[in-house]
Amino acid sequence: MDRYTPAEIEEKWQKAWAEQGLNKTSNDLSKPKFYALSMFPYPSGDLHMGHVRNYTIADVIARVRRMQGFRVLNPMGWDAFGLPAENAAIERNIHPAEWTHKNIAQMRSQFDQLGISFDWDRELATCSPDYYRWTQWIFLEFFKAGLAYQKEATVNWDPIDQTVLANEQVDSAGKSWRSGAVVERKLLRQWFFKITDYAEQLLTDLNQLTGWPEKVRLMQANWIGKSTGAQVTFTTEVGDDLVVFTTRPDTLWGATFMVLSPEHPLVEKLTIPEQAAAIAAYQTAAAKKSDLDRMADGQEKTGVWTGSYAINPVNGEQVPIWIADYVLVDYGTGAIMAVPAHDPRDFEFAKKFNLPIKVVVQPEGETLEGATMTAAHVGGGAIVHSEALDGVPAGKEPGQSVEAAVQWLEANGKGTGTNNYRLRDWLISRQRYWGAPIPIIHCPNCGAVPVPDADLPVKLPEDVAFSGRGASPLAQLESWINVPCPTCGTPAKRETDTMDTFIDSSWYFLRYPDAKNDQQAFDPAIANDWLPVDQYVGGIEHAILHLLYSRFFTKVLRDRGLLNFDEPFKRLLTQGMVQGKTYKNSQTGKYVLAINIADLTHPIDPETGDALEVVYEKMSKSKYNGVAPGDVIDKYGADTARMFILFKAPPEKDLEWEDADVEGQFRFLNRVWRLVSEQGTGEEPKDNSKLKTQNSKLSTSSFSKPEKELRRAIHIAIQAITEDLADDYQFNTAISEMMKLSNALTDAPCKESPVYAEGIETLIKLLAPFAPHMAEELWHHLGYMESVHLQPWLVLDESALIADEITLVIQVLGKTKGTIQVPAQAAKEELEQYARESDLAKRYLDGKEIKKVIVVPGKLVNFVVV
Q: N or C: which terminal CB in the chain sees fewer CB atoms within 10 Å?
C-alpha cells in the first residue's frame, strides 16, 4: 500500500459517497430517530476555523449514531437574509441574491472538502421564495393569534442619508458608518411579536432543559428577568394615570418624585410652557444616546422637571414629575416612582437636583435622616413613616414588608400584586430590502389586511436600486407598493418593512424533516416524528436571542395545533472558540502580522520598537491570527484538521491553535496508515454481513497471554470511547484511547493472530467518525466491499476486560521496592503469600522482623518491619 496521500483519497471518497447517496437520511421507521443539528451559517463566502469546529463536532455525533443503529437526520442550510448582502450590493453593484448564491456554492464545496456527512437533499436557504413563503405564512399565524401587532418604537436614524440604521451600522462614537452623521433616535411605526405573552412559560420550561448547559439556562432566565412586586397608579393634577411597577411597594411612602422616560407619551401634555424649551432640548439629546449608554453604570444623572405633579396614592402627597434618560420608554411602564433614600440611582438624582429624601426603612440600631445621608440605604431594618406598615421587618420574604405592602394596597384599592418581566416584545421590523417581506396590506378602509395564503410568497422585487440612502428600496418602488385591498378592492399599499432575520432562524429546524413540501411549512406528523432536535451544536453567542426565539416559535406553533412538544432542542452543546496566537502592541492597541516580526521568540513591533504581547485571542482577520481551513486541508488533509480540532480541547472549552499539534495528529494518522498497510491486501473481497458475529466467533480459551492482553486493550478502547461519545462528548479523550490502542497493536507480538485482525478492524471503526476518509480507504484495503460508515458500532465483550494477571506493587515501610505479576483473581491471603515468596521480599526482608502486612487487593502489599 502506498504512502498516505490525503488529498487523493479524500477527493476519491467524497465523490464515491455522493454517488452512493451515503449521507441520505434513512426512512426506516423501525430504527430510533436521532436529529443532529448544527446552527446553520450565514453564507459569507468562506468557512473559518470556528465553523470547522462546530460542524465537525456535530458530524462525529451523527456518524456515531448511524453506526449505533439510529436513523439520523443531519441537514444543512443557509441563514441567507441580512445586512451584509445588502451592503455587498451597494459596494459591488450586484444584486444581493447573486452575491449570496455565489457564497453558498463556495461554502458548500468547502463543507464537502471536510467530509461532513450532510444530507444535501434537505438543503434550504432562508432567502429562497420557497422558504420565505412559509416564513410569511407563520407570520400570519402569529397575526391571527393576536401575537403580531404594530406600535411606535425608536430606531437609529441617519439624518444625512435619511435612512434607518441597524445597531451594527452605528459606530462606538454614535455615528453612522456610511455618512458619519451623529445618529439620532426616532419614533417609527413598527411590527412586534408579543413574546411577553409567553414569558412565564419560557422561564418555567427552562427546567425541562436538563441537557442544556446551566450557564445558558441562567442567561435566558436573567434575560427574561422575572420580578415580583406591585402595580400602582399615580394620578396627575389633570387626572391622567401614571402606572408604575415596583418590586418594593413597601417603600411607596418614601417616594418623593416621579421620573418618566423622555419618550413617554404623556410628557408633552405634562410639560408647562415655561419648561417646554428645556424639555424639548433634553428629548433631542436623549434621542442621540443608545439604551446601553443611558443605562450604563457611572453615568452622570441628568433630567428636567416637567413643571407638573402627581399624587402619591398611598399618602396623597404631591410629587414632582421629571424626565430623565435613565428611564426607558419600553422597559416596565416607562415611568418610575423615585425613592431616593433606598435606591442608589434615585439618591444620586435627588442629590443633584436637591429633591427631598425620606427614610422609610430604618436599620436596626441606627437613626437615618434623609438630609444627612451620604448614600442610599438598600439593606434591611424596620419600616417607618409608612402608616399601617410601621414596624414590619423590611424584606421580600413571607411575613415581611413587601408581602404586607401588597396586601395593604389590594385591601385599600391602591394597587395590585403582579409580576413584571425584563423581557420586551420582539421588534421584528427592518427597513431594508434583503429580508422576508411582511405579508400585510394597509387598506384605508380595512386597516392591516393579511395577504391571502394563495398569494404567498410576497416576493422581493428584483428591479430595485441600492444606494444606502433614503427609505428602504421597497418603500421607493411604487409599482410594488400599490395593490388593491384583498378584502374590499380599494387601492391600498403593501407593508414595506421586512422581517428580522432571527425569524428565519426561529423555525428552520422544523423545515428540514420535510424540506421539499410545497403545500405546507412542514407536515406536522413528520415534524413531530423527528423533533425535538436530539443534539444541537452552536456558539455561546446564540445563548439568548436565537435560542429564546426558537423556543417561543415552538410554543406558539404548538398552541396553533401544529406541534406536540414544548421545547425544540433536547440537548445543547455550545462549543468554545478557536483562538490563534496573536501579537499585540499593548501601548497602541494595534495587532501585528506575524510575518512582519523579525524574531518571534522576542517579538518587537517593527514600526514602534515596542515589545509585543503574545496572547491567544479569537481568530479574526483584524487581529492577523486566523488560519484558513483550506490551507490546513491542502497541507495535511481534512482528516487531520478534524482530528486536531477534536483532540486539542474538550468541545465546550476554547481551543488554542498550534501548528505543532496539527503536525502531531498528522503523524498519528500516518502511524495508523502504516499499521494497517501491513495487514490484509490481496484477499478476496469480504462480505460485511459476517462482521456482526466476528467477535463472538473468536475462541478465547486457546488464546496466548499476548493475545489476551491485546484483546483486553481492544475492548478497553471500545468501552472508553463508547462512553466518551455517549452524552458529554469527550472527543479528545476518545482520540487518546485510539492512540493507546494503536500503540498496543504496534507493540503486540501476535501479528498473525485473529485477535490482531480484530484490533485492526476495531481501530478503523473507532476512527471512522473522526477521520472518515482514511477509515474508508483502510477498510477497503482490508478487502471489504461495503462502506465502513455502514458498519454497526462495536460491541463490548466484558469478559475480555478481565485480566488474567495484575501488577502488584511491593512496598517496605511504605516505600516501593518493585512489582510482581500475580493472578488477577487472587484472594487477599494469596496476595500476601505471593509477596512473601517473591525475590523482592527475600532481598529486602532478609534478617528483618515483619510486624505487620498491609494488603490492598488488586494494588499493593506493604511490609511493616522492625
A: C
Question: Which of 412, 394, 410 minimizes the C-alpha distance to 402?
Answer: 394
Give tens-digit pLDDT for 481-497: 999 999 999 999 999 99
3-state secondary structure 101-156: HHHHHHHHHHHHHCCCCCCHHHCEECCCHHHHHHHHHHHHHHHHCCCEEEEEEEEE
Q: Which three cell numbers stand for residue 503?
A: 425569524
Residue 646 contacts residue 730 (beta carbons within 8 Å): no
Q: What is d(CA 59, CA 76) in angstroms, rounded to the nearest whole number? A: 11
Burial class (CB in 10 A: 0-12, 13-18, 19+), 448: middle
Instruction: For residue 184, list its beta bridge partners.
Output: 157
Helix axes 659-677, 754-767, angle to 10 degrees: 140
836-845 contacts, C-beta under 8 A, 24 or more apart: 838/810, 840/810, 841/810, 843/817, 844/812, 844/817, 845/812
- Decide if pLDDT at 786 tops 60: yes
Q: What is the pTM of this model?
A: 0.88
Distance of CA 631 to the CA centre of its chain: 28
What pLDDT digit, counting tens, does each position of 62-100 carry? 999 999 999 999 999 999 998 888 888 888 889 999 999
Which single residue is written with the C-alpha cell 515501610?
Answer: 813
| DSSP state string for 818-853 | EEEEEETT--HHHHHHHHHHSHHHHHHHTT--EEEE
SS3 labels along 188-199: EEEEEECHHHHH
CA count, 13 A, side-chain hemisphere, 181: 16
Q: What is the mean pLDDT of residues 575-598?
A: 91
- DSSP alpha helix (H) spans, 725-855: 731-747, 754-767, 772-781, 828-837, 839-845
Would you state the pLDDT for residue 695? 47
CA distance 289 to 147: 30
Q: What is the mean pLDDT of residues 294-303?
A: 84
* pLDDT at residue 687, as a whole number: 56
Closest CA to 662 of 679, 683, 685, 637: 637
Question: What is the distance between the alpha carbons of residues 100 and 94, in angstroms, rounded to a whole number?
Answer: 10
